[in-house]
Amino acid sequence: MPKKNTKPSNHYMVGDLQGCLAPLKTLLKKVSFNPKHDQLWCVGDLVNRGPDSLETLRYLYSLGDAVRTVLGNHDLHLLAIHSGAKPLKKKDIPFLGPILEAKDADNLIYWLRSQPLIYVDHELKAVMAHAGIPHIWTMEQSIDLAREVEALLQSKKYAAFLSKMYGNTPSLWQNKLAGDDRHRCIVNYLTRMRFLNAQGHMEFDSKESPEDAPQGFFPWFTYEAKGQPYPIVFGHWAALMGHTERQDRIGLDTGCVWGNHMTLLHWETGRRYTAKL
Ligand SMILES: [Mn+2]
Fold it and tell me: 5 CA distance to ligand 1 centroid (A)?
């Protein structure tokens, strides 16, 4: 689809899709979404656990330039399996199997692999990352670090990187980190982070409920961040049900795939629309 020169009339941001295509279509119909004039932002985790992962990818791909998405942990997991870096496990077969076997798999996977970890719109003054952006990074630094991983994902070395992507360490960012540790750490902050301590250590063992934070740890968005001028749109954390207690940290995962609902935010009015699977 050719690039448009005109600004989109409306920006809509939707929470984790996880293969829930029907509620997405319901919501887009509700707001009379027009791909010629409007833009849809997806917070990542487009696939896995829901009923229509393959058709969700095909639909987003068909929307062309009207879609902006960032990669979530489930999307990276799909890339890892497709690349051969990770075996397809039994629990993923019903969801990811149809994508891997599809005739257009290579095309869809290439599209997914070309998506960023952070998306920023300087005119809208908004930034999006699947899990969020930690307070220890400025927005510009987080974009630079995301670009390092994106370059890897789009290079010939991507399968090798994906085979080293899994793991919870190092749990604290340091500028001197190098190689796989550096890239794994960036991926974990941007796609898996929930609880941080003041220093910026990530914690992955506790349950999802914000009340279950281990001592000294709090949800990442509770910390004051320097050099992060724009509101952060994120997903990943269904247990929050969109509650962050701050206007500039916009959580959109409301657990559609787990029996709750999907949330679509109309940026220009702040109005939220919901639909169930
Ligand atoms: Mn996620």
Answer: 33
Ligand 1 centroid distance, CA of 106 (Å): 23
Closest CA to 116 of 89, 135, 143: 143
Q: pLDDT tens digits, the chain, 277 residues: what are they?
A: 555 557 899 999 999 999 999 999 999 999 999 999 999 999 999 999 999 999 999 999 999 999 999 999 999 999 999 999 999 999 999 999 999 999 999 999 999 999 999 999 999 999 999 999 999 999 999 999 999 999 999 999 999 999 999 999 999 999 999 999 999 999 999 999 999 999 999 999 887 888 888 999 999 999 999 999 999 999 999 999 999 999 999 999 999 999 999 999 999 999 999 999 9
- Give the C-alpha separation, 11 to 174, whole Å: 35
Q: Given CA atoms 138, 126, 190, 85 in this order, what sign does their dihedral have?
A: negative
Cα(8) to centroid(ligand 1), Å: 27
The reply to whether the predicted model has a pTM over 0.90 is yes
